[in-house]
Write the structure tokens for this entry.
Amino acid sequence: MKVIGVACSCLPRSNSLKAVEAFLKGAAEAGHETELIRLNKDLHGCIGCQACKKEGAGMCVQKDILTRYFELLPEAGAVVMGAGNYMGYAQGEAWTFMNRHYCLYGSMGPERKIKIEPGKKFFAIFAQGTPDNPAYRANYEAVCKPFEGWGFDRQDVMVVTQATLEERLKEAYELGKAL
Ligand SMILES: Cc1cc2nc3c(=O)[nH]c(=O)nc-3n(C[C@H](O)[C@H](O)[C@H](O)COP(=O)(O)O)c2cc1C
């Protein structure tokens, strides 16, 4: 299957990026086709233009770093997103990434047709400075929950800190390998 990694952190030494890379390494070794998309300043928020809701429309009409993601998504079997924790919540890029999935709704009526097949696995890995805690976990759920509405098969969130980095990298690798 195709496995897409989306790294929200722009930091060169990003822990969430390292974990996404470990996951993709495991997936590649298991024979899957992987691609990493590193979000950067070429990331635009949803502008609510509704172009994606027109009859026969494709994915988001904005051309930016996520264009490739939405090209790959229909054929993908799994997505792994990595993001840092800023002020207790997933960093802004992760929210923008989530918001842009609005283009997957074919219409906004009561029968919201979704443009991708259901059942794609969705993994999320969050890096934070402080130890794992329930308040942050609740905030991570908030940014991940909408993916269920688009038919993704949500997997447990992984939290990585500097102290747990090596352990989590191994776990991320194993998760990718188990796909
Ligand atoms: C603007 C900013 C806000 C942050 N806020 C928090 C925070 O509220 N709680 C926390 O545990 N870590 C916080 N951190 C630390 C980051 O979550 C940590 O460095 C993490 O590793 C960043 O993810 P990355 O390594 O993938 O870039 C913050 C860092 C920055 C730059």
